Amino acid sequence: MYVKYRTQIVGHSEIFYREAGPRDAPVILLLHGFPTSSHMFRDLIPELSHRYRVIAPDLPGFGQTRSPPRGSFDYTFDNLARVMQHFVDQIGLDRFALYVFDYGAPVGYRMASARPERIRAIISQNGNAYLEGLSDAWEPWQTYWRTPTAANREACRASLSAEAVRDWQYLHGADANRVSPDGYMLDLAYLARPGAEEIQLDLILDYRSNLDRYPEFQTYFRTWQPPLLAVWGKNDPAFLPAGAEAYKRDLPNASVHLLDTGHFAVETHAPEIAAFMLRFLDENQIG
Fold this sequence. Notes:
This protein is of the alpha/beta class. It has a single domain (4-136, 210-283), classed as Alpha/Beta hydrolase fold, catalytic domain (Rossmann fold), CATH 3.40.50. The protein contains 12 helices and 8 strands. An 8-stranded mixed β-sheet has the order 1-2-4-3-5-6-7-8, sandwiched between helices. A hairpin with a 2-residue loop joins β1 and β2. α6 (162-171) packs antiparallel against α7 (181-191).
């Protein structure tokens, strides 16, 4: 099944997205995380698109999406979710399963909380919604949240370095022989673009808003009981396995699978994740 590369104008942004699968098939919307793009789904899309219409956009400020500069657009998670909601409206998605990873989780859960009737199921791959999912590695960011000084902002710039992206995000806890360098090298190229680091530092500061929204997301889970699969790289240095298990508190029927890999589990375990997803979607009669 061919992957098509498309764009959609949404306000002042031009959203780039990947699409594959039959037009009349059930939809899976894939939302990427930090600091990557829809490129992270390059191995997963072919595993799913023989049965599903798979759509993977680049968020504003990421990848190939063209979005306004800082000053004319506030890079916050509320605004990312707002743009993505308009995106799905404009391409005509009424109901869909939601795959969320990292930053994609607070974006996707805002969308789900606002329009819960649209969400058929959720797949969370290292996408957090519970405080117990956060490791001690968040302390520099939390310091910036508590005291948003120029010095604390500068300290967070280390999260954007080549070493942090490659060694901490991609390689930590993973079999390095299974991690293609293409992913982190492309991410680093995107981060090297003019203004990109400042956008990311704005989002790092605004990440504190996601923790404030966790109770809202959890209320959505309890009220609407969406089918949920948490498939998690258990060696993730940022999002702990406890964050995956916590979904069961509000969604007793949630299915949780921990994989022996790191944060970017789809880089090393795309076939395994796809197999879990296909079985989960079958069990919930989606497809």
